[in-house]
Amino acid sequence: MSLHDGERARTAAELRAGLELTGIPAGVVREELGYGEREFERILGVTGAAPSSVRRVRDQLEDLVREAGREPVPYSVLTERARAVAGRWFALPERARGGADRPSAGAS
Questions:
Q1: Which of 7, 51, 83, 96 would give a disulfide with 3, using CB separation of 3.0 to 4.6 Å?
Q2: For residue 11, which of 64, 70, 79 has the smallest C-alpha distance?
Q3: CA–CA distance, 61 with 24 (Å, rounded to integer)
């Protein structure tokens, strides 16, 4: 399943909006998921990242936004319906669960 330029741009904007809604620094989310800084930027930009990695970050951000008591950003491309289709093409990652002791966005 490939995304065209417009879909990649929308997905990148949605991922970054979701990250902002978590209230957690990007580095903390990145480390929880075990990605290097460069790879995490590729995932957030939906540029040259594995589709399963983009989906994994999407799911983690959605979970973290809900844990923060907020409503997740609606995804225009990475929908639940698209998950079923993607699952036919590649193994989808399990949803990651972060720890409760992570710093807030105001922490350094």
A1: 7
A2: 79
A3: 10
Euclidean distance between CA atoms 41 and 47, whole angstroms: 8
User: What is 51-96 written as a DSSP string?
Assistant: HHHHHHHHHHHHHHHHHTT-PPPPPSSS-HHHHHHHHHHSPPPPPP
Cα separation, 16 vs 23, whole angstroms:
12
Work out the number of other CB atoms within 10 angstroms of the CB of residue 23: 17
pTM: 0.74
Domain residue ranges in the chain: 5-89
Please give the chain's pLDDT, 108 residues, in tens. 566 678 888 889 999 999 999 999 999 999 999 999 999 999 999 998 888 898 899 989 999 999 999 999 888 766 666 666 665 555 556 666 544 444 444 443
Contact 27, 93 (CB under 8 A): no
